[in-house]
From TrEMBL:
InterPro entries: ClpP/crotonase-like_dom_sf, Enoyl-CoA_hyd/isom_CS, Enoyl-CoA_hydra/iso, Enoyl-CoA_hydra_C. Belongs to the enoyl-CoA hydratase/isomerase family. The keyword tRNA processing does not apply. This is Enoyl-CoA hydratase. It comes from Labrys miyagiensis. It comes from the Bacteria. Pfam families: ECH_1 (PF00378). The keyword Repressor does not apply.
């Protein structure tokens, strides 16, 4: 596949696979990686031949955080004016699902990157943490907000204040990850889940992700109204007609948009 400076990119059928590829820096997220990653994801999102993406790292590290060597010397006005975190807002514009397949360290920005994805599948060797406090800063790509929503205030506060790491089993129990699998099966399991999603009718996939994401932003009553409008709207799709007809006729559906 296509090879960029910091990523390996391939297409596996309808799944876009992105492997973070800065092994010497444990996939630390530098500016080039952020630009390349959000760029490739936007391309996959716009590509009719792709239905779901997977982001993975190495066995040792999903990503060990923002690149400390690149960040260390920044002055306040430079950080403010560069707004070097804004590139990560690209994730909010993606409409197709992205899966994080996490093995080894997912620390700082690496843990935040995993949480920017729609779901996390972890290997039993995965370790999650927000160690920024030890560097004299705080999480900067949404970690303080998404971790609280994912695992609750008590565990999030402890992790953000102490920088301790959370093992895969605890992360699953706490609700940070969808599933833990043996390290050797991680990529296959993530790809299988991505293929399952990519085979679903795309209008329903986009609506489903959009509705679940709204649960972060809206009150329950507004969220339920939002979902109901999306539900009714899907009756305008050919795939709703096909999906329900196929069920009644006891045959596999042939979706048009997928
Ligand atoms: N940035 C830059 N380089 C790194 C990073 C990093 N985050 N993590 C590891 N590396 C480098 C090491 O410096 C080392 O390089 P070298 O061989 O040149 O010395 C190489 O990767 C291998 O690392 P180690 O030798 O340290 O490997 P160990 O197995 O001994 O330790 C650890 C692995 C525990 C993961 C250790 O590397 C570590 O603690 N890394 C830093 C973790 C960390 O503090 N992360 C948080 C960074 S701050 C952050 O993420 C803020 C996010 C919000 C802003 C985002 C803006 C983009």
């Amino acid at each position: 596949g296509e090879s960029l400076e910091t990523l390996l990119v391939e297409r596996r059928g309808r799944v876009g696979l992105i492997t973070l590829n800065r092994p010497k820096a444990l996939n630390a997220l530098n500016a080039t990686l952020a630009t390349e990653l959000t760029g490739v994801l936007a391309e996959f999102d716009a590509d009719e031949a792709i239905g779901c993406s997977v982001i993975t790292g190495s066995e040792k590290a999903f990503a060990a955080g923002a690149d400390v060597k690149e960040m260390a010397g920044k002055a306040y006005p430079q950080a403010l004016l560069e707004d070097f975190i804004a590139v990560w807002d690209g994730f909010a514009r993606l409409r197709k699902p992205v899966i994080a397949a996490v093995s080894g360290f997912a620390l700082g920005g690496g843990c935040e990157l995993a949480m920017l994805c729609d779901l996390i599948i972890a290997s039993d060797s995965a370790k999650f943490g927000q160690p920024e406090i030890r560097l004299g800063v705080v999480p900067g790509i949404g970690g303080t907000q998404r971790l609280v929503r994912a695992i609750g205030k008590a565990k999030a506060m402890e992790m953000v204040l102490t920088g301790r790491m959370m093992e895969a089993a605890e992360a699953e129990q706490a609700g940070l990850v969808a599933r833990v699998v043996p390290a050797a099966d991680l990529l296959a399991e993530a790809l299988k889940t991505a293929e399952t999603i990519a085979a679903m009718p795309l209008p329903a996939v986009i609506a489903a992700k959009d509705c679940v994401d709204r649960a972060y932003e809206l009150t329950l009553a507004e969220g339920v109204r939002y979902e109901r409008r999306a539900f009714y709207a899907l009756f305008a799709s050919e795939d709703q007609k096909e999906g329900m007809a196929a069920f009644i006729e006891k045959r596999p559906p042939v979706f048009k948009h997928r």
